[in-house]
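User: Sorry, folds how?
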Amino acid sequence: MVTFNIPPFAGKELEYIQKAVQNQKICGDGEFTKKCSAWMEQRFGAKKVLLTTSGTTALEMAAFLCGVKPGDEVILPSYTFSSTANAFVLAGARLVFVDVRPDTMNIDEKKIEAAITPKTKVICVMHYAGVACEMDTILEIARRHGLKVVEDAAQGVMSSYKGRPLGTIGDFGAFSFHETKNYSMGEGGALLINRPEAAEAAEILREKGTNRAKFFRGQVDKYTWVAYGSSYLPSELNAAFLWAQLEKADEINEDRLASWNEYRRQLEPLARESLIELQAHPEGCVHNAHMFYIKLKDLEERTRFISYMKSQGVLCVFHYIPLHSAPAGLEFGRFDGEDEYTTRESERLVRLPLYYGLKAEDLAEVTRAVKSFFGR
């Protein structure tokens, strides 16, 4: 069986976890947490990066730091994971879902402005498959209306938009280091803070509402509870696991891109025959091979395809059920305008196995099975 995903493992993860234990510092913000944060700040040019317990909690922090309050509205795509929505629901916001572009499955920037009301506080974009949303247009809309922009870049580590790393373009960005992501710490994430004036508030929020970070920097002689906060700080053991992969970030990225490019080469003939559709990458968008998906004719054909691939020993999966049609989506939000593409395109999309270290023979087996489904 060619499985859909194998979590990345670079080789030194257990060695670094052991070192963290020997350092007698496993609760977080130790050597490895600092290394990971500093690496991302330097590599991506973010003003401040804080490791978090998940991509979800990074988004929760972003919602709080944007000042989202009960009754505010947040614009976001319906085609995303529940975490994108939950972060703002937790803050009391109403969700306003906007249709996606069929070429990238990202929020349609041309439909955002019509969804803005006097209650709108934030535009939250999600960079699907590590391919950037049209950020210039979105930032211009946000500027004219005085709105904050949050990037859900859970899938976008190492991707960029017109030379700018994803997660560093809006006011705040969120990475995920879940086991399904390009780089993993099991469960974990990072908050990218692109507004320097928000850095201290973010530290306090992450440290249970205390000024503990200032204490450890010697800026105060004792630390105390100064504001609302929660426990968003990950274990040093998780950070040690992640650091082993960040040390090999380029190697992992190149390995995934090589697999992605081979999929593309093998399956382009099917696309030329209009049997499938392949991913689109608008000009200026550099992706990170987070996933390789194809689109089939409709839901019925996709269902048959997934079943057939399983019979051939290949595990393929579909992705999100649009949030606006889910029970919680109906309770906490509304869809603005027409659902022209979100549902239809979501029912056609299927993801092929892709992970660091995918063997050439396994990739060949996947493409053989795809071609055989279409009698090729």
